[in-house]
Amino acid sequence: MRKESLEFLKNLLSVRGPSGFETSVQKVWHDYVADFADEIHTNAYGNIAAVVNPQGDPKIMLDAHVDEIGLMVKHIDDKGFIYFQKIGGVDPAVLRGLRVNIHTAKGIIRGVVAATAFFYRDDEKKKKVPKIHEIYIDIGAKDKKDAQKKVAIGDPITFSEEFKVINGSIITSRALDDRAGIWTIAEALRLIATKKKQLKCAVYACSVIQEELGLHGAAMNVINVEPHAAIAVDVTHATDTPGIDRKQHGEIKLGQGPTVSMGRENHRAIVQRLRNIADKKKLKLQIETFSITGGTDALAIYSKLGGVPSAILGLPNRYMHTAVELVDLNDLQTAADLLSAFCLDIKKGERFSVKL
Amino acid sequence: MRKESLEFLKRLMSAASPMGFETQGQKAWCQYAAEYADEVRTDAYGNAVAILNPSGDPKVMIDGHIDEIGMMVKYIDDDGFIYFQRIGMVDPALVRGKRVNIHTEKGVVPGVIGSPAIHLQDRDKEKKVPEMHESFIDIGAKNKKEAEKKVSIGNPIVFDEGFEILNGTVAVARAFDDRAGAWTVAETLRLAALKKKQLKCAIYATSSVHEEGGTLGGASMQTYNIKPDMAIVVDTKFAADNPAADVKVHGEVKLGAGPTVSVGRENHPVLLERLRKVADKKKIPLQTTPFGGTNNALAIYNKQGGIPTVRVGIPSRYTHTTVEMLNLKDLQQTADWLAAFCLDLKRGERFKVKME
Fold first, then answer.
1. By C-alpha distance, which of B250, B259, B262, B245 is closest to B321?
2. Could you point out which of A45, A261, A286, B268 has its C-alpha 20 to 30 Å from the C-alpha of B67?
3. Is B166 on the interface with A (CB under 8 A)?
4. How many CA atoms within 13 Å lie on the side-chain side of A215?
5. What share of chain A is helix, strand, coil (3-state, %, to 5)?
6. Touching check for B287 and chain A: CB below 8 Å?
7. In this complex, is the C-beta atom of A132 within 8 Å of any C-beta atom belonging to chain B?
8. What's the whole-number mean pLDDT along residues A257-270?
9. What pLDDT is recorded for position A49?
10. Is residue B116 within 8 angstroms of chain A, CB to CB?
11. Which B residues in the span 46-75 are in contact with A, Cβ-Cβ below 8 Å?
12. Reported pTM
């Protein structure tokens, strides 16, 4: 991976963007793509589309979401302890003992998700996972008044963990879902821009908001962009760790390349084209079935505008939606290389359709 | 708190010092104590004692323990995932979703304790806390062979969480239990050294190993080696001023309301009274709690035919988690108080329960 591209990934992970509060991440992404995009559009809710070769045909949309899961301040009790609700699919089982950032109008307030000492919990409680309203954040406030000076109802909250190398190309961070995706489409766009003379299509790389709350950003963005085809890049579950039943969830491995999915929103012709290009370019690619445990932006895109041929490109990710998500940088690079080769391979005026 | 003293606390907190592997923490402690003590000694198992005015009488032992809880590599599976056992009372409910450092002969190997994505969990099942052997560390190794090149059975593991000020004097870290105590006894020695001419007693400030393993072995060894006339044990004390605790079960101890003294069992009533009087005179608030829990005072008081001992507590929230919390004011007051006590002791003073 190119040094500047790795720095860009680190920068994306050092800023916070829970769904509905994505602007600081969008700014980092915007400033990076501005170096090679011909046009950049933003919309009312903060989606960004960076375009290379806007006169090209067809319009190919590369989508990934900028938002991350998080929490939101819901209630401050008399002693100044903070109760919260989820933003997206947060697992209450892995919150306690984490440090968090509360994003206030005046800046970041640090806090911890509290946990009773093990030997002081009764045996029944030891075995049960708490409900989200049974845990709270401690910011070391004296009382409610002190806490209210610092934190307000509605302030978003994120985990602390940033980019860290675990072993060679394997890295951990919170929110690789889906910073890994917006990195990949920006990197693909950069690679495409370096071979612009060969390019026939228009490429719209879109960093969209609010995926974690129901794919809303992508739903808006597809109407604005009106693409002829779309590829959504998001993390997918790597199931190569203990405790995951491969018979139930399939087998996807870290470091074995990105994935394409079969069925439902995944348009056969696009998937086949991606597979052919991966073969030709000797890029690793894994195959999985369409997801029944959660949708991605492709699901919001494909049924709009009378049907937009779409596919998901998955980036294998262990421990999704925890503070210790894990990806292999090689998979990200392979995905960017594949997307770039795909766009450069599209013929002028080409359309995707299911042949009868 | 004096700047250099705070820096010393930070150095202690950044050292990894799991029970049985305390040398990093002990080294930081000895370096600091050596600046103020007449003599610093260590013993066969790595206990340290810093002595001030060795010809004084009585011999006062002031003890804190340098070890922390942690984990140990137990088994590496074929895919290179690492299973572990506890060193001390680590809560299996809190290990997942955390970063860890494995301390090997060649240096630190970073890892994460994974948790299956919430999407892949069976939503019909009631969520139960995993057993310790159901969690594992991912170091991004390809397989057992690669993992074994980096990590060995028996390597100690600590959570990757450091010291941080949350709000004013409220600080958070892993393992304030009991670096807070180790800091306090060194600081007590420093403060007493400033007024050495007034000092009648000999101060033996001890930084003991092996408290967390359940044997209290370090304090037992120290007692035998030192043969003190009295002992004060400084350890963290469970603060129940928060929703993770129940005052009816745990009693009411508050952060920032001064050090605690325990009454009953190992706590010698006459020594306790003397300590209270000094606190009164110095206007240091004390919180009183019933005896309870295991701590080094239990290992000391019934040795050598009986050593008058009192257990002093630094109020601390969320004991044995990665987010232990305390108030630096409590820490400073404890050191001020214990230094004043030592300076107040008369030559040859002894404590005995009176039969009246």
1. B245
2. B268
3. yes
4. 16
5. 30, 30, 40
6. no
7. no
8. 96
9. 98
10. yes
11. none
12. 0.92
- Segment B79-94 mean pLDDT: 95
Strand partners, A287: A260
Tokens standing for residue A255: 């470091």
For residue A96, the chain B residue with the least C-alpha distance is B94
Average pLDDT for A335-344: 98
Burial B40-58 (b: 16+ CB within 10 A, else e): beebeebbbbbbbbeebbb
B113 phi and psi, to 5 degrees? -95, 110
Task: Give the residue on B whose Cα is nearest the Cα of A141.
Answer: B167
DSSP conformational letter for B57: S
**DSSP type of residue A93:** G
State the pLDDT at residue B121: 84
- Distance of alpha carbon B301 from alpha carbon A31, whole angstroms: 66
Contact A97 B115 (CB under 8 A): no
CA angle A119, A125, A130 (to 5 degrees): 120
Selecting from A95, A118, A320 the residue whose C-beta is nearest the C-beta of B117 gives: A320
Token pair recorded at residue A134: 């049974």
Contact between B334 and B5 (Cβ < 8 Å)? no
Give residue A356's pLDDT band: very low, low, confident or very high (50, 70, 90).
confident
**Sheet containing B170-173: order of strands:** B164-167, B170-173, B324-327
- Contact (CB<8Å) A293/B120: yes
Residues of A in contact with B116 (CB under 8 A): 241, 243-244, 319
Question: Looking at the complex, does the CB of residue B96 fall below 8 Å from at least one CB of chain A?
Answer: yes
| Of residues B208, B209, B99, the one with CA closest to residue B162 | B99
Cβ-contact A336, A283 below 8 angstroms: no
Q: Do A115 and B318 touch (CB under 8 A)?
A: yes
Show which residues of B are catalytic: 211
Enclosing H/E stretch for B206: strand B202-208
Residue among A71, A106, A113, A120 with most chain B CBs within 10 A, to mutate: A120
The three state secondary structure string of B107-151 is EEEEEEECCCCHHHCCCCCCCECCCHHHCCEECCCCCHHHHHHHC
